[in-house]
Batch of 2 targets.
Target 1
Amino acid sequence: MKEGSLGRRHEVRQLFSRVASTREAIVFGIAIGLFVLFNVTSGGKFASSEVINIMAISSSELGIVVLGVALLMIGGEFDLSVGSVSAVGALIVAKLYQLGLNPFLAAAIAVGGGIGTGAVNGLVTVKFGIPSFIVTLGALMVWRGFVTLVTGGLTLIFRVGEAHPAFYSVLQGNVGRVSVPLIWVVVTAVILGLLLHFHRFGNHVFATGGNKEAARAMGINTDKTKLICFMIVGGLAAFCGILQSTRARGFHAAQGTGMELIAIAAAVVGGTSLFGGVGSIVGAVLGILIVIFLQFGLIMARVPGFWYNLILGITIIAVVIANKFLGQRRRVA
Amino acid sequence: MKEPPPALAEMRNIHKWYGRVHAVDGASLAINSGEIVGLLGDNGAGKTTLIKVLSGYHRPDAGEIFIEGEKVRINSPSEAQALGIETVYQEQALVDSMSVARNFCMGREPVKWAGFLDRQKMNECMIPLRALGLSIKSPDLPVSSLSGGEKQGATIARAMHFKAKLVILDEPTRALAVKEVGRILDFVKGLKEANIAVIFITHTLHHVYSVADRFAIMNKGKIVKDIKREEASLEELTEVLME
């Protein structure tokens, strides 16, 4: 009897440790702390349903990219081109729609284009052995240059809602009181979470990012693993661009600028290691929440906007120091 | 006259260049089932390179490999594993940030459907670990929490679990405390008892002297001595090594 209950408790703890670790518990604590703090400084407005709804929409669009970026970082690589690729995705869907294509088909082609850019990033990185930091920095400039060239810097109109209400509701509508982008990010998180933590592929990602040589020696195709991660990120970035353009009803050449750094910041705040091999989907979700809480909390506390970058910067560095300290302590234990 | 059975694994006249460096210069080495061969030589003698050819990590520039008498080409570590050759590399056999169970099945994960991990099967890694006398508390512990000897033990248990015929140990006793070296040697004897052949690479002769059946000494990319234990004295081997 006692044996059984002990076994059950071990199982529960195992299940918990699979989904979240000490690291995530701390990040969760920080997120809750920020929420409470900003609710006090805003006089209770932070927890109102309007504010939560706006935060949900912005965090969803960013979050879809962060999840992919975190997956890739766990696999040991970076993607600095996500902002530009999101613009490429948005440009493709808006342009093809203008040319008379069905928007669903146009969106599928745009996501395919994003996957393609990811494949190029991945192939160049693994085949030429160049750091992905450099490869995707190049891609950031190339794709931003491309969209500026094609649009001539002008805004494209993408008023898809009137002619195709179904397309708009699938991407930016509401289900009851829940905005659809939130459903998209939750679905993405669940799928990537299952892949990363419960699937063979995830084991290959952790091994590739944690110790590439060991992974290779045990027969894992580390190049293929990285390539797939790059393609997932590219597809998600393009999808994010489509969501943004659908909501904004247009596309402009600067759309998504700066997204790459915020995405990496959110992933790192959520416990993803910059050196690969460490991180989780739960952590990435919490990282997104912290970044969004900071953004909106500071606005609502009427702190001038330029404080946001400064405080986000300090938070990132503090979290990385805390993680390093935590990692060392765990190794001693 | 009856022909002797072919060797479990045989490398014939292997060459490997790194740019202009002739790392392995026509080395030949054979090993029989259940035999422990100590591969000795100074740092840079070409031991690890020769062995990486057998384990599929490097392609030889020239030379042939035979497994149980049959000529094979080993193009990748997974092809070597499929032939029953498991390699335990120095310092790079495990991923520190991953759990024991995840490390154990790395690259050969047991799955239920559509590639989803079979946790129960993964946790069976505790059986060979216990059989080897390792008291690791939980399969969910991160490998970074294990001692150097426990890590080596875990990689050896992994090789046993996946039914290796030949286990290659690359400097398994390097950077280990004296007590842990004794444990590794016990693991090696355990492999022999299970009729698994072992190539034990080291540059410390006295670590391998008590367990090996045969010694192969490498120098400048060549096997300069291949001698049975009963024909070799510690003094003689030391002398060849010092040359």
Target 2
Amino acid sequence: MMQREGSAPFRNTVILIVGLFLFWELAYLVVGEVALRSPLETVRFLGKLMQTDIFWLHLADSLKAFSVALAIAIALGLLIGFGLGLHRLSGDAMEPMLVALYSIPKITLYPIILLTFGLGISAKIAFGAIHGIIPVALFTLSAVRTIKPILIKTGRVLKLSPTVMVRAILFPAAVPEIFTGIRVGFSLTLIGTVLGEMFAAQHGLGYLLMNAISLYNVDLIMAMTFLLVVFAATVNALLLAIDRRLHHG
Amino acid sequence: MNKVRLYQFAVIAGFILLLEALCLAGVIDKITMTPPHIIVRDFVRMILAGRYFGEIGKSLANVLLAFASAYVVGVVTGTILHGYKTARDILDPLFATYYAIPVFAFYPLFIVIFGLGDGPQVLIGFLLAVVAVIVTTLNGLDRVPLVLKKSARVNGLSPLQTALRITLPYCAPSLLTAAKLALAYAFIGVIGSEFIMARSGMGYEISYAYTNFDNATMYPLILLILLLSIAANSLLSHWEAVLLARRGQK
Amino acid sequence: MSAAQVTLRGVTKIFPAAAGGEPVRALGPIDIEIRRGEFFAVVGPSGCGKSTLLELIAGLTAPTQGEIEFEGRPIKENVPDGVGVVFQEDACFTWLNVRENVEFGLRQKNIGPEEKARRATAVIDMMGLRDFARSYPAQLSGGMRQRVCIARTIVAEPRLILLDEPFGALDQQTRLLMGDEMLRLWRETGATIFLITHALDEAAMLADRIVVMSARPGKAIDLVETGWPRDRDSRIVERESFGAITSRLWKTLREESMKTMGRASSGA
């Protein structure tokens, strides 16, 4: 994503956010109480919700599943990415296959995961992990493969041992792109975990969201959607900022 | 063909054989998964009997609808935005964070607003796809070298002629990339929504088969979705690679 | 005459065949002697094996035939102590600032952090990078980045410095200025300099002795002694003998270059 040096990026973001809220308010005025709530009502409801115990229970469940899924996605993704990146033939062969896997609707695999892991938190973790593992692997693979050969030559001229070469040259050279992979993996793992909870779970924020539908609780639907969107957007914006700094350092 | 193809073939074949072995040995039990050769048999039966064609057709129709609308709206929006730097700068953070947001979270909201028909699914598919198209179009237009546009002016081409005869052909690979992404996202959006909560379509049928322990139906359908998405993606990727290679040789 | 620091005797380099091709004789047989403390240049048409020659001396690759010795000890595929290399491509570590890049050159040395910092500062000053010590390579121009690479190489006080067309990516004016810098460096460090360049005027201006290589497989076909005083700079171009030297270089080189033009050539 090309970042253009806007005259006042902060001001622009503020305008964007204000614009989105205005759009929301407008939609509410048009559609009405039957299906929407205004921004203000939603925030108020969310505030009340956050004072209940049951909300925090579900949140904790989601967070637990998400963090484990993320840890797995990052660990396995890095492993696969490094392995494929360092071995030329494997990388050449597996990369297109990983890209193909990336494009399939992973929710299709969810019944298989449920059958394998049962209905508990492991299924959610597995589902979240399979969303995040591929981007981490692909970006790591690319990062390792596109390390400038001149840097490796430099390491050899400086008589660095293989371990030092990896630690002092290969790894730092690859970090910016690896981090991009982790950033994308983070977002996708989050989406995967929430999606898993929406499809078949008894706990978690995704479950709360789907439950709200059966109860036709519009307040709850809006509050949960809002919370999920804001959380995902904020964390991603933070990670993006770090990503950009890493690429200019 | 060569070492790479051999490797890929070996990986896929090895994986399938491994599954087959684990299933037959009972390590993977019948309830979790049927052996691959039985899945293929059920798949062929399903296709020949023409079962679920209605459902499949319906899902695909929705996917195409989401795809087409996202593509047209995306390309037009991207083209317009390209000319208005301020608007683009304002929307830039939205595009940058868009794919981090669980768009599926809006599905319940759409059901509430639009009811339980096909609308919410197509809308989710559309929303997932449209931003990818906009961003790809913008990036493609960015890459048109200024020197080409200057040449057009020098040769007296009107803005419309420039757009049609220079900019558009130059951006063809990007437009193809945009189509590839739009199709993939539309697919994910529509089918995914069918899984979560729908009354018809492929996703629904898989979900139903799952609840009824009907592996003979579920696995063939899953296989069908996998094959369709991989086939569509591979075709478009191949076309994209051909276009890019041609440029590289110029 | 100073003692020989590097000797190549009957050195040949043959690269194994790529898929569906023939083995490539990139270089040789070639005999060269580089004297301690001199400024030695190599010129030749593209593809003649100049870079391969440099890699052989640096110990980055082994000769197929023949022997190479550095300070009396044979080099096979090991980088000898006391040799530094500056490449044509930008080899700056983008994640380190200038000072950290330079200090990296001392990594394998067994000296304490204060001593490292002192030496790095000295070299940074020598290369005119003092105001940029905290900048990152991405913020610097091509010429400055190349200076950083040179600084990183000389901070280890190598006795032999190999330069593979280090100024190739720079514009003409910067190249000439860098040439003056190299001469100054050469005098201040007392190291032997081995320079590969395709620019005849650069070789003629900087070097004590110049070897002209033939088209691939590269062999030494001429050896020119410039006889310049040690205390020289780019104004040496005003001397009459400068013109004579460049003419001689071109006369030999022109034929070889035309041979190369006729063939499909791959990089040097």
